[in-house]
Design a protein that fits this description.
Immunoglobulin-like; six-stranded antiparallel beta sheet; Aminopeptidase; 19% strand; globular; 20 helices; six-stranded mixed beta sheet
């Protein structure tokens, strides 16, 4: 028999064996009831072997001064522990040990790199260990190490909070004595902590009333205390407070706190403390959250309205942001999603619209019939004689956010910038007013910054320019929006696209808008939208065929939230429609769009001035 026939016979034999037995190898002897246990033990042994292999790599690294000098060696060991954790994330013994060793490696790496990002990675892994495996023997070890890191990086209050938590949650743990010693050295008095049973009862009462006893105690000192909870599951994952940005003027400041995920928001006030040299303060408690290492604890503003903003790890799972007030008269807080951020607007006593210094020009009496709003009533702005001196024009998207894209490659961010530039030029020439553009080049601008620019400059009007898009290429037309609850599915779809979020999330905005919307501003925005839509369609129909009027609509656009002046969003045309995409690229069409919008703005101003005059 030749070699080929032997191989062929062997293959046939193995195939028949597999066909009739289901396996090439005979089944192992399994005792009744031992199937799951045997598998679990095998898996546990496998996890332990993988962990020990990673631990051995760590020992080699720790023993070699030469290896410890190079970052790649640390990362290699970290990745071994990460692989173990990802393979066995729910193993009650292996997963916590892998997390602990990853944190220890990052902490060791920081000793060589001095990168704050490395120490933050260590803290986060210790925190994950405590949150996911609170009953594991390493939980109090992790809290102790967190305290050590905070102390080392000059954050004693956060270190105290971590060590206090050991005494509260793990009074009999291996690190309780060390935590007591550390606190004693820092001059911290140790008080008895309530038992977990009592604590759970307090929490049950908290959910019914909405504030805990601890919160209520603080409210005695503060004049007001509100709680805003972002909707979601009750078991929230811990967020990271990533950065704090602000835009400011003498009578207006917007502060935006960026978070990695939704948080609960508690707000309150603290009176001035002359002994400590502290002014009146407003604060936000964000939880469950950790402050990112490297995030400045002190941001100086000192604009006469706010002195500064301070951020600290107030409690192990709570970040407190404190606003040191100067001449702040009013504060408004709301949140936005995708990404999650908390927006705080602070207003001064003089944040109001300027009175007309120049008498309004005479307007033909033919406009008189159009000057009223619905039911013949004058709106608040008409009664006060609103004078438009500053207009903010906002080209949508920009930079890393291209907006919608047409089949021909046209990008929304490019065409709306050209339209906005043309509009700004026309408004300056026709109205002799100050026109501010939120961006004049291809750069990224957060939605919250756009209205902040308008508020800080005390703008009288805010106009955001966009290009529409739809799943079907057949849709075309022009529509203008103002901020309110969406009344139809199409409006919800457009808002979801411009907000870069989901329609479901937009539904959650209702609670925010209830507090933000003011009737007079909505009415003025609606009137401005009607004037712009009418004149825009009318101007285009004179030169182009097939112009479709989709009307004035309302929707909760993020970019309009928080604007303190009449504000609209114009969807100039559908970039997803081949014909309208070609037109949007055309300079003459861009000019026509700009002129139509400008005519609408001019008619709105004339109507308002006429009402003021009469």
């Amino acid at each position: 028999m030749n070699t080929f026939s032997i191989k062929k016979a062997l293959i046939i034999f193995l195939s028949l064996l597999f066909l009739f037995t289901g396996s090439v190898f005979p089944p192992a002897r399994i005792l009744p009831g031992d199937t799951g246990l045997a598998y679990a033990k095998t898996r546990s042994r496998s996890a332990e072997i993988e962990y020990q292999q990673a631990k051995e790599a760590y020992r080699r690294l720790a023993a070699s001064a030469r290896l410890r000098k190079y970052r790649k060696n640390w990362i290699s060991v970290i990745n071994k522990f990460r692989k173990v954790y990802l393979a066995h994330p729910d193993d009650p013994e292996i997963a916590p040990k892998a997390l602990f060793m990853m944190a220890r490696c990052y902490s060791g790496l920081y000793g060589y790199s001095r990168r704050m990002s490395d120490i933050q990675e260590a803290i986060e892994r210790y925190q994950v260990l405590v949150e996911r495996f609170p009953n594991n023997r390493l939980a109090d070890d992790a809290l102790y190490e967190i305290g050590q890191i905070y102390k080392m990086t000059g954050r004693p209050s956060s270190a105290i909070a971590a060590w206090k938590r050991i005494l509260r949650d793990y009074p009999n743990g291996s690190h309780a004595r060390l935590a007591k010693e550390r606190l004693a050295r820092m001059g911290v008095k140790i008080t008895a902590f309530p038992s977990k049973k009592k604590k759970s009862k307090t929490k049950a009462k908290t959910n019914k009333k909405g504030t805990t006893k601890k919160v209520a105690a603080k409210t005695k000192k503060s004049s007001s205390k509100k709680t805003t909870k972002s909707k979601g599951k009750t078991t929230q994952k811990v967020a990271i407070i990533k950065d704090i940005r602000y835009w400011s003027d003498t009578d207006y400041t917007r502060v935006v706190i960026n978070s990695s995920r939704p948080v609960s928001i508690k707000q309150g006030e603290l009176p001035a403390d002359k002994k400590r040299g502290l002014p009146k303060r407003f604060y936000l408690d964000l939880s469950p959250a950790y402050k990112k290492i490297g995030l400045p604890e002190y941001i100086k503003i000192d604009n006469g309205l706010l002195r500064s903003v301070r951020a600290a790890q107030f409690q192990p799972r709570t970040v407190r942001v404190v606003f040191d007030l100067a001449k702040t008269e009013k504060i408004k807080v709301f949140y936005l999603r995708d990404p999650f951020r908390v927006v705080t607007d602070a207003f001064g006593a003089h944040y109001a619209k300027k009175k007309c210094a120049v008498k309004p020009k005479k307007v033909a009496t033919t406009h008189k019939k159009k000057s009223g709003t619905h039911k013949g009533k004058l709106s608040l702005a008409q009664q006060l004689g609103l004078c438009v001196r500053t207009i903010v024009v906002d080209p949508g998207h920009g930079g890393r956010d291209p907006g919608a894209r047409g089949r021909g490659g046209t990008r929304e961010k490019d065409v709306v910038l050209q339209i906005a530039k043309r509009l700004a030029k026309i408004l300056k020439k026709e109205l002799h007013c100050r026109v501010i553009m939120t961006r004049r080049s291809d750069r990224y601008l957060p939605l919250t910054q756009r209205t902040a620019i308008a508020n800080a400059n005390k703008a009288d009007l805010f106009i955001s320019i966009h290009a529409n898009a739809a799943p079907t290429r057949r849709l075309r037309g022009i529509e203008t929006y103002f901020l309110n609850f969406a009344l139809d599915e199409d409006a919800m779809r457009v808002a979801a696209r411009e907000n870069a979020t989901s329609e479901k999330r937009i539904g959650e905005l209702k609670s925010i808008l209830n507090d933000i919307l003011k009737n007079s501003k909505v009415n003025e925005s609606s009137r401005l939208a009607r004037k712009v839509q009418y004149n825009l369609v009318r101007t285009l129909k004179k030169r182009y065929k097939g112009i479709r009027n989709l009307g004035v609509k309302q929707a909760p656009f993020f970019v309009l939230i928080g604007a303190r002046m009449p504000s609209i969003l114009v969807e100039t045309s559908f970039i997803s429609n081949p014909t309208e995409e070609r037109r949007l690229r055309s300079p003459s069409y861009q000019e026509a769009l700009a002129r139509g919008i400008a005519k609408g703005v001019l008619e709105y101003i004339r109507e308002t001035q006429l009402a003021y005059k009469n």
